Amino acid sequence: MRWPWQKHTTTQQRCLGIELHNGQAFAVLRDVHGVTERFLPQAEHQGLEPLALWLKQLRRQQPGLQQLPVTISLDHNDYELHLLEAPRVPDDELSDALRFRVKDMVSQPIETLVVQAFRLPQDAYRGRLDMAFAAVIERVRIRQLVDWCEQQQLLLQHITIPELSILQLVAELEPETSVGVLRLDQSAGDFYLFLDGGLYMTRSIGVGSDDLGLQPPTDGEFELESHSRLETLALEIQRSMDYFESQLGMGSVGQIWVMVPDGAELDVLLPDLEQAVNTPIRTLALDSLFNRMAAPATLTASLATALGGSLCYELAG
């Protein structure tokens, strides 16, 4: 993994971003102008094999797609993320230093794990605490992904986590205020807080689109069954923003961006949610900036995260 705001120049004209999410693989093919192709798995698809078949078919249509640089954003099930006080060591020694603190927090032998650490911005906790996130991944999982990329004739450049892929995406949009990003799956969600290109907070939310009574769109329509958990969702978001303001000392959150779920429509709830948290809310709409696909296809949350990971490349025009 690398710092997400450190872009790397490549002579390649295209790159691939992959997100592994809830056992499925999502992918976008990007050039200097934006996303030109995307892979959105079907409900029955699991693992990387459906993506491999898509790549094979795409190469028949577009010769020259071998040796594409690729970034893979890990599935939540592939890693643990711990928030720890950072020891007084240089950044290039931080991961090794935190291995000793992490080893008592994990069930596997530390020799079988990779620890990748990155600091919170210096102004977090009013500058009184030096804190860092430590992502812990099994070595065997990394080996599996490296082998798969070799089999698919892909040049694996980075393995990252969705928190950093979404940070890269938000940084690309250059918001003028602090931003909370809400991502909802069917049964759960995540809320991230960003400011000035830094990740300050990530929190799991026990409310999903199914809890809100939202169903996948059909023929351009959606069905709203119940608002029963909307207040719970608003409370979870408000608690996160209160922590950002009071404990982290970063002031009030300026706006909330909602990622388009992979299997539901949330737009109908946003006015009520905005009123409940008293903070401007809008959909994280990326199509006008990044979508260059010939066929209409919205950049939903998993595709957007795959895109965010791929933005670490400065492609050749």
Model description:
- The chain has eight helices and 15 strands.
- It is of the alpha/beta class and 317 residues long.
- The chain has three domains: 115 residues, Nucleotidyltransferase, domain 5, CATH 3.30.420.40; 64 residues, Nucleotidyltransferase, domain 5; 112 residues, 2-Layer Sandwich (Nucleotidyltransferase, domain 5).
- Strands 4-3-2-5-9 form a five-stranded mixed sheet. The chain has a five-stranded mixed sheet with strand order 12-11-10-13-14.
- Helix 5 crosses helix 6.
- It is globular and about 55 Å long.
- The two termini are 25 Å apart.
- This is MSHA biogenesis protein MshI.
- It comes from Bacterioplanoides pacificum.
- InterPro entries: ATPase_NBD.
Can you summarize this structure?
InterPro entries: ATPase_NBD (IPR043129). This is MSHA biogenesis protein MshI. By secondary structure, the chain is α/β, with parallel strands linked by helices.
Task: Give the CATH level 1 class of the largest domain.
Answer: Alpha Beta
Order of helices and strands: EEEEHEEHEEHEHEEEHEHEHHE
Form type: globular
- Total number of helical segments? 8
